Please model this.
Amino acid sequence: MPPAIDTRACAMSSASTDTVRPGGAGDALLRVDDLKVHFPLTRGVLFKRAVGMVKAVDGVSFAIGRGETLGLVGESGCGKSTTSLAVLRMQPVTAGRIVFEGRDITAQDHGSGTFRRRMQMVYQDPYGSLDPRMRVRDIVGEPLVVHRVTASRAAYDERVAALLATVGLLPAMAERYPHEFSGGQRQRIAIARALALEPSLVICDEPVSALDVSIQAQVINVLMELQQRLKLSYLFVAHDLAVVRHISHRVAVMYLGRIVETADRDTLFREPLHPYTQALLSAVPVADPAAEARRARQVVRGEVPSVMRPPSGCRFHPRCPQAMDVCRQQDPALTELGPGRAVACHLHGGAAAIAMREATSA
Ligand code: SF4
Model:
């Protein structure tokens, strides 16, 4: 049985993400290429006719290596959760390709797909994701029953006890119901259930946003320690940049259905290039009051445009303080600037971007 995790920890662990070596492009556990998830808008009751299209995810590409955490950040409605549901094959895909553990799973669905034991999800709300009528033993052990993993009741009980110990809960807690636990303990139960089938990838959709700050730290520590012990990969969807900075090896920033910047964590937080990323990071509070007082904050003005009618050219141009003429006309491609570093902005991309801007404004 693996050793129990110290449940008393209330500060974020000093366990560094640097000790896990991110997989390179050739070692990708998950590869997503040009993913699109569009929802048709219809009008009429008997005779429905298409009147538009909601492009919730519109050409998203990324890869996650073995033992790596990719943080996916952006405002509400930018397409983060839709992307994660599409990867999990719980959301139909309009176009693109999803390759997991070397197999193309784009045409599969989560209910019957051959990959589903190896890819699991931890949901945002630990109060809503656990059935209040089930004992913890049955919640954690349900995947074992569905997939007929354990041969006997004794083996089942032993496995459930080991899973609870893995997330720092006592085996005796298996007899209790979810309402008898705190929010952090419930999220540990959800993590134990996600680990039951020994996945290689866990998709964490805002897993701590419903918890108190001190409890958030405990759950993040559990996830990081499990990653080191079990060599898990995470797609970590969140809007809290402090949490993303702590747990991620690389970060992808989404805006209106697209990835606008991606880089390793330290590079992104030290030198954000995209004006939207710069504005997001400038809103993160600094612990030092003097530094916080000196800090210049960039405020993104205006509302997020509708994904039904995204702006022409760069989708961020109506809110961008550095918008140029070219930005209203040409959609900037996500351009690789170096290993693992890419940005979709006409301000970056070298001589070609400059020549294109000059040609457009001439
Ligand atoms: Fe701003 Fe233009 Fe860059 Fe878009 S392409 S982020 S509008 S500078």
Remarks:
- Residues 78 and 255 are 5 Å apart (CA to CA).
- The longest strand covers residues 49-65.
- The pocket of iron/sulfur cluster is lined by residues 274-275, 314, 316-317, 320, 322-324, 327, 332, 345-347 (CB under 6 Å).
